[in-house]
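P.,

For your records, the input lines for the assembly:
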Amino acid sequence: NAGVMQNPRHLVRRRGQEARLRCSPMKGHSHVYWYRQLPEEGLKFMVYLQKENIIDESGMPKERFSAEFPKEGPSILRIQQVVRGDSAAYFCASSRDPPPSGELFFGEGSRLTVL
Amino acid sequence: GESVGLHLPTLSVQEGDNSIINCAYSNSASDYFIWYKQESGKGPQFIIDIRSNMDKRQGQRVTVLLNKTVKHLSLQIAATQPGDSAVYFCAENGGQGAQKLVFGQGTRLTINP
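Structure tokens returned:
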């Protein structure tokens, strides 16, 4: 049973370009979460999605960031017009059960570097 | 507001000793707590969890203690091994109806040979 799969593992973008991060949840999991981690810091919640629905996006910046979890295919975190401050590790997690009690399983992360 | 903080950002222990990592939380509505281990370049890995109706839970070499009176959580690792070197995060759920885990800053545990 494969874990949460994220790709790319590393992504380099120049300022103003777009970054797309993909996450495939564990089999049987329909709840997906995205977190951002800056160096030497904890994980900060960004968004919680179920299939085709954004449930909680209270941690998402108002501009340039969007997330989706389509009926088919992986969840996508999209960052438009990236800036240097977007450089971070972005982790996806999935759970079988809904929050607040479902155990979260994390992927290995996508590390975005903005030049 | 919500916050989960740790008393010590770094902790060094001798191999074979026991280690204790502490965490303070501020949301009294939280009823589910988790400890995660994160090795360099990897994602957080679940270690152990505890619900608010318990004050202690044991796993293999790890014990989590919950003191709701002072909103304090600790992770005890027995007979530490080199493979225990990592950053440890506590997380709280924010209570029923909450949609996300709130993570603390983390404690870096280093095991000295």
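Two observations worth noting. Chain B touches chain A at residues 4, 31-32, 34, 36, 41-46, 49, 89, 93-106 (CB under 8 Å). Chain B has a mean pLDDT of 89.

Regards
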